[in-house]
Amino acid sequence: MMLSFVINVVVNCIMTNNNTLISIVGPTAIGKTALSIKLAQYFNTEIISADSRQFYKEMNIGTAVPSAEELNAAQHHFIQHKSIKENYNVGDFERDAISKLKILHQKKPIVIMVGGSGLYVKAVSKGLDYFPEVDTTIRTKLNAQLEAKGLNPLQEQLKTLDHKAYKTIAIANPQRVIRALEICIGTGKPYTSFLTNPEKSRNFKTISIGLNAERSIIYDRINQRVDIMVKNGLLNEVEALIPHKDLNALNTVGYKELFEYFEGNSTLDFAISEIKKNTRRFAKRQLTWFRKDDSIKWFDYKTEVKTIIEFIENF
User: So which domain of life are we looking at (predicted)?
Assistant: First the structure.
């Protein structure tokens, strides 16, 4: 009986130590989805999406959700599993993704995670940072300011209180800006000063793979992707969502610009050019975030998959 118990403990430790999460990151439109599918097929495993914009079933074209063919090529999780009407934050995702990983790792020692949402990637691989509780009236006041004067004054306030946060968070996302501001105001300390807490223990190791290219190439790929989205029916998708345009999930690149067009505040050409510009800015912020992580092994976006597989197997 005792010997059997010891053997089971040893086997469980070996299995746990072999559990691996391959995290694929990089700027938008760089080719992360294609690489993740090739790796999932090679390692006979499944994919967890850490792209927070692709969680919502009503948002398809504007978030570059993998095609039906891509979804059929490998089992995906956390793709269009929520409604824009549901509240779903990074803490919820951390809980759900860790739970899913525990299930997948029981049969598959390697699991793939792919996504450009830096905070969501970090939540799974390293855990979320701890933030102290602050007076809830601060957020109420900030939301009132947002409603009365728009996002720009709040962005400028964050720039003054925590310039580092201003440069690294999704500055076009009101929820992220207000969250950073309420910490700054409520604690008297920069939001980013709380981003250095020890990592949470995980029962898997993470191998982080980054895809990158020259900035001009990234920008060209972004511009081409936006043109394809428009051709594939982005305007119809956004128009159908107008009744819900005030929801936080829809306050994002590709949707908010076209809401302005449908309200008569801009021309279509200008709206499309703004989508391209704002997506390029988003890609720049993505790279700023990921470059802070020294554990990421970067590869050119044209690198052959066999080279990346060799790196993973020799890790």
Answer: Bacteria
- Residues 41 and 190 grouped into a single domain: no
Domain range spanning residue 164?
136-194
How confident is the model over 122-175, as pLDDT tens digits? 999 999 877 888 888 998 999 899 989 999 999 999 999 999 999 888 888 888
Q: Is 32 marked within a binding site?
A: yes
Residues 6 or more apart whose CB falls under 8 angstroms from that of 144 comprise: none
Please check whether residue 7 lies inside any domain of the structure. Answer: no
> Is 231 annotated in some ligand binding site?
no
The answer to whether 29 is annotated as binding is yes
190 and 210 share a domain?
no
Among 3-7, 55-59, 63-67, 100-104, name the one with the lowest average pLDDT: 3-7
Q: Are residues 121 and 154 in the same domain?
A: no
Is 27 labelled as part of a ligand binding site? yes
* Angle at which helices 215-231 and 268-290 cross, to 10°: 140
Is position 28 annotated in a ligand binding site? yes
- Whether pTM exceeds 0.85: no
48 is in an annotated binding site: no
